[in-house]
Amino acid sequence: MRAIVLREPGPVENLEIIERPVPSPGPGEVSIRVKAFGLNRSELHLRLGYAEGARLPIVPGIEAVGVVAAAPGTDLTPGRQVAALMGGMGRTFDGGYADYTVVPRAQVIPFRSALPWQVIGAVPETLQTAYGALTTVLDLQAGQTLLIRGGTSALGYAAAALARDLGATVLATTRQPSRRAELAANGVDHPILDDGAVAARVRDIVPDGVDAALELVGTPTLPDTLAATRIRGTVCFAGMLSNEWTVPDFYPIGYLPTGVRLTAYSGSAADLPAPVLQDALDRLAAGTLTLGPVTVYPFDRIRDAHRDIEHNRISGKAVVVTQGETASAASPSS
């Protein structure tokens, strides 16, 4: 089979496509013939050397979708459509950047869908994070307001869609003027151009501050996001588009506005119930849900995909297809 291997941190050239034997599953493990995999910011961090606890060399990829090849000692049968995510994939054991991957059964979510694999590949990890952040962490309710800092990321689009389903009013930011129209077209009530300081503009719309905020850019914008949130409101830190995730010399009393709560979200496959994934896929097929734009790459253009993510050249999700699929859109770079 083909596998993409990262031997050491560095530039995109460190992602190598090699031939290696198809891995065999042990008891309680699932071998998946990968059809597509979504790319995530954490895989960029891995390549750049910012992933603690990762072993190298490794096949990256914290998610994949495909069909079961073998699953000894489990309830899954060959041919079953499945998604796999998290739990050490692409960090402590080989992940989804390959024709086949082997994962523990606990990290596998079965589903049924006639959607193209390139569409399905954009869903699992993004949906898991958006669903967990909005429900488990922010407890977003109908009638509340949500600020999404980093709205044109894949996670930003997914969070906006789920927040609308919950009956919330959505404000979302982008640094590029041309992408405000994309946010509006994907159901964002108030697209905001982000120059690094949006709290005053947020409060022009919601004078007391938003009820909840989802911080996806990272620590550079976090103080301003906190300032845009009302007393007893909550900010959830769930993304690092800036590649900056630590706060130097953190002094809580000086950093946190009085009465504003700060928390974080990091989930797993167990945090994405199978019915939630199935419902999202069904609604995507019916045209009643959109999770934002998807840019599709063939397997041999993995370096282009990483390059585009690193330089913020695409809006929404990047997906790589593996099994004879054809990319539906050319990369905006190269």
UniProtKB/TrEMBL annotation:
DNA-binding among keywords: no
Coiled-coil regions, chain positions: none
Keywords: NADP, Oxidoreductase
Domain Enoyl reductase (ER): from-to ranges: 10-320
Highest taxon in the source lineage: Bacteria
Keyword ATP-binding applies: no
PANTHER family named in the record: QUINONE OXIDOREDUCTASE PIG3, QUINONE OXIDOREDUCTASE PIG3-RELATED
Protein name: Zinc-binding dehydrogenase
Natural source organism: Paractinoplanes aksuensis
